[in-house]
Amino acid sequence: MTISDAISPLWVSSLQSTPARRGAAAPQGLPDLEKSIEFRLGPEHTPVQSMRRARAFVAKVLPALLAGAPNAGAIEEATLAVLAELVDVTARHRASVDLSGRVSYDGDHVLITIGEMDQRLPAPEEEPGLFLVHRLVDDIGQHRDAGMGYETWVSIPVRPKAQ
Hints:
By secondary structure, the protein is an alpha+beta fold. The protein has helices at about 45-65, 70-90, 130-135; strands at about 15-20, 35-40, 100-105, 110-115, 140-145, 150-155. About 30% of the residues lie in helices and about 25% in strands. Strands 1-2-3-4-6-5 form a six-stranded antiparallel β-sheet, covered by helices on one side. A hairpin with a 3-residue loop joins strand 3 (about 100-105) and strand 4. The radius of gyration is 16 Å and the shape is globular. The relative contact order is 0.16. Mean pLDDT is about 80; it is low at about 1-30.
């Protein structure tokens, strides 16, 4: 299944909620939930098209995902910028037929996972857009996916507004 122009903006209502940190006790009065959205882009899209489509799709549902987050506007901008760069790099070094992505929010961080690349993540000197990624995230990594490629993940901290 691929992102389509035919997807209804009402898709926001189908955001998934899954238990975060399985086995961890939730603080009293606060739900232990993680909200996430997932997408998949097929091979018919060029890297530029993949980047634009993923960004546009996530931009439609991100406000619902980050509802109630402190400084949500700034977090949205950072999330979309990082997402676009990671999708672009992954699409140009695609290891599998589909490019998959997941954006989740647990109250403290936005986690973006994009897969699969046919190589390790290049250095920012080779892919200048990765300088932006490294500036906006507090952690970045890759792991071998069950398939044949590398899945890249980043964590964007949600900083409370200064009071």
